[in-house]
């Protein structure tokens, strides 16, 4: 595997899961694989889990790591070709990307949707420029439309906790004060649709995901009905995708907050969220602190998903 931007890049998903569980059993089995290889992690946006888990995963494989926070200490980067660069951006991505590629063997990129142009966001303009111009394998550390390292960790977690072969997994929209990208729910839907789980998406009207991500999932507009018999509740906020409201908050309906009353409708479901989470907006204190909350093991599995992906990339060098 050279690049990793979505579930299909992994190839056989069951085989990838098998590799992930082998790595989890012995994280230091492949410490020679990354010897004298350098990972460069480029962040256009903030991070806690992705930064730490990916760095740890690379170190487990014996790699050297470098981190560049583009908005803190680096030159501001222009991304549009043809622009007269007389503003506040002294460097163009078209030079910066191949230069970054000179100093490393693998590149991880975090670049969120900017909500200025749906076309730019959904064509993954920034991530694809890294793939095209860096000369290095590139993996997504959350791009405009997907967060595959998160979704892989989510899948590993569900496989660890599921009590039936075909669990009911519910992705629920929940309120948030700000407009958030669709990357996590898009990606989660893409990965769930690649399994044979019973997968349901619930959200208020106006928050429909792009059809290529919602796929064949059942969409249920009644959140309580969706929760009935669920084995996993995966909460996340996202801004509207559909025009003319792309990138906007069209509802902050607090009745969608995940609480104990709604969790009682489920089959003693586990509660999941990618974190960071706004308590008592997305989920109540009681639910996130309950024994059914698996947000910490879910975050811990970010190290495993990153290490599995990096191992596969290193094997292709
Ligand atoms: N879930 C996740 O990607 O967390 P960070 O934004 O902190 O990296």
Structural class: alpha/beta
* Order of strands, widest sheet: 9-8-7-10-11
Give a list of the ligands: phosphoric acid mono(formamide)ester
Which strand-content bin applies to the residues? 5-15%
Describe the global form: globular
**What is the mean predicted local confidence, pLDDT?**
97
Q: How many individual helices?
A: 12
What percent of residues adopt helix (DSSP H or I)? 25-40%
Indicate the low-confidence ranges by residue numbers.
none
**Gyration radius from CA atoms, angstroms:** 20 Å
**Strand element count:** 11
**What does the main sheet amount to?**
5 strands, parallel
Rounded to the nearest angstrom, the distance between the terminal CA atoms is: 9 Å
User: What is the string of helix and strand elements?
Assistant: HEHEEEHEHHEHEHEHEHEHEHH
Task: Give a quick precis of the structure.
The chain is an alpha/beta fold. Helix content is 36%, strand content 15%.
Walk me through this protein's architecture.
The longest helix has 22 residues, at 295-316. The chain has a five-stranded parallel β-sheet with strand order 9-8-7-10-11. It has a four-stranded parallel β-sheet with strand order 2-1-5-6, sandwiched between helices. A two-stranded parallel ribbon has the order 3-4. The model has no long low-confidence stretch (mean pLDDT 97). The chain is built from twelve helices and eleven strands. By secondary structure, the chain is of the alpha/beta class. The protein is globular and about 55 Å long. Strand 8 (198-202), helix 8 (211-214) and strand 9 (218-220) form a beta-alpha-beta unit. Helix 1 crosses helix 12 (295-316) and helix 6 (148-161) crosses helix 12. The structure holds phosphoric acid mono(formamide)ester (CP).
């Amino acid at each position: 595997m050279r690049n990793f931007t979505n579930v299909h890049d992994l190839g056989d998903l069951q085989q990838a899961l098998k590799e992930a569980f082998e790595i989890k059993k012995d994280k230091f089995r492949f410490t020679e694989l990354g010897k004298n290889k350098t990972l460069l992690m480029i962040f256009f946006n903030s991070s806690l889990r992705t930064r730490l888990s990916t760095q740890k995963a690379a170190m487990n494989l014996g790699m050297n790591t470098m981190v560049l926070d583009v908005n803190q200490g680096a030159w501001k980067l222009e991304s549009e070709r043809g622009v007269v660069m007389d503003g506040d951006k002294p460097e163009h991505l078209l030079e910066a990307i191949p230069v970054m590629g000179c100093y490393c063997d693998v590149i991880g990129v975090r670049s969120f949707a900017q909500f200025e142009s749906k076309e730019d966001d959904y064509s993954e303009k920034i991530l694809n420029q890294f793939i095209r111009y860096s000369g290095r394998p590139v993996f997504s550390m959350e791009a405009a439309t997907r967060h595959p390292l998160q979704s892989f960790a989510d899948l590993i977690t569900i496989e660890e906790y599921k009590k039936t072969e075909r669990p009911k997994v519910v992705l629920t929209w929940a309120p948030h004060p700000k407009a958030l990208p669709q990357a996590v729910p898009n990606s989660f839907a893409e990965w769930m649709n690649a399994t044979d789980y019973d997968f349901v998406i619930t959200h208020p009207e106006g928050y429909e995901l792009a059809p290529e991500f919602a796929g064949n999932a059942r969409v249920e507009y009644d959140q309580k009905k969706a929760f009935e018999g669920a084995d996993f509740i995966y909460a996340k906020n996202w801004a509207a995708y559909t025009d003319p409201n792309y990138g906007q908050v069209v509802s902050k309906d607090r009745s969608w907050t995940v609480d104990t009353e709604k969790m009682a409708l489920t089959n003693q479901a586990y509660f999941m969220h990618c974190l960071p989470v706004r308590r008592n907006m997305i989920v109540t204190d009681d639910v996130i602190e309950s024994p059914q909350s698996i947000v910490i093991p879910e975050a811990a599995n970010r190290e495993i998903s990153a290490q599995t992906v990096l191992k596969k990339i290193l094997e292709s060098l």
